[in-house]
Amino acid sequence: MLLTTVDIIIICSFVALVCLYFIVRQWPVTHEQPRRIDIKAAEKLAEHGYRTSAKAVVKPIEFTIGHRQHRQQVKADLIVRRGLKKYVVEVNARDGSSVRNADIRRRLLEYQVAFGPDAIISFDVDRNRLRIIEISNRRRLLLFLGMAAAVALGAVIYLLVR
After folding, report:
1. What share of the chain is helix, strand, coil (3-state, %, to 5)?
2. Number of separate domains in the chain
């Protein structure tokens, strides 16, 4: 069974769209000047096996209340990776980041919405202590189901066109 030119174009288009999706999804919008403590935290996290992807990243989230559009800027101190996992890092100079604090919980949810990390790291630079905060959601499952549906739809279209 040989592939025709149309088959190759369809397959390449599908692969290009999937790659474009992953690139755009991970695209940080702007960067600010990182603080000295953020740079120090990035160096210490490297000792723990984390690779820094971005420093002082600002990403907008948009939402609608009623019929009015709102835009909120969400800033992450660091975005790091370890293996295939992505983490947003909240850098603290002192241990003032209790999840019992409502403002901290709101910020964690903003990180989850804006950056879609696997988890959030609260890093206390003075004590060289990191805590991993995982928010249970079904984002990976939904991504997997969406990709499976796209592959199935592509296969059906391919069989119908062929």
Report:
1. 45, 30, 25
2. 1
